[in-house]
Specification:
The chain has one domain. Helix content is 93%, strand content 0%. The protein is an all-alpha fold.
Length: 100
């Protein structure tokens, strides 16, 4: 359960970071356009920021898929355990009924 919560927190933090980075980039681009400056260094920085945001999105997606897979495995294990428990209960009830 704690692992699931940590995954959700990690995904949320990564998503929020990506959104904040994207907003900062948009503000920076608007200011740059208002000033009319075309500095190659700034363009390189913007390109690097775009790559970083893209990488954050990819990482967020990987964590999301990993979390979903873990949840599915846990659900399958619970179903299996419930079946085994039900079978054991039925067997115990039959034994009690038969007086064994």
């Amino acid at each position: 359960m704690a692992v699931g919560v940590l995954f959700i927190i990690a995904i949320t933090i990564i998503s929020v970071t990506a959104i904040i980075s994207e907003n900062r980039k948009a503000i920076f681009m608007a200011r740059l356009k208002m000033q009319g400056q075309d500095d190659p260094h700034l363009q390189a920085t913007i390109t690097a920021l775009r790559e970083e945001v893209r990488a954050l999105r990819d990482t967020s997606m990987q964590y999301d898929l990993s979390f979903d897979t873990a949840l599915q495995k846990m659900e399958q294990r619970m179903i299996s355990l419930e079946r085994k428990a039900n079978q054991q209960e039925i067997t115990a009830a039959k034994e009690i009924h038969l007086g064994l």
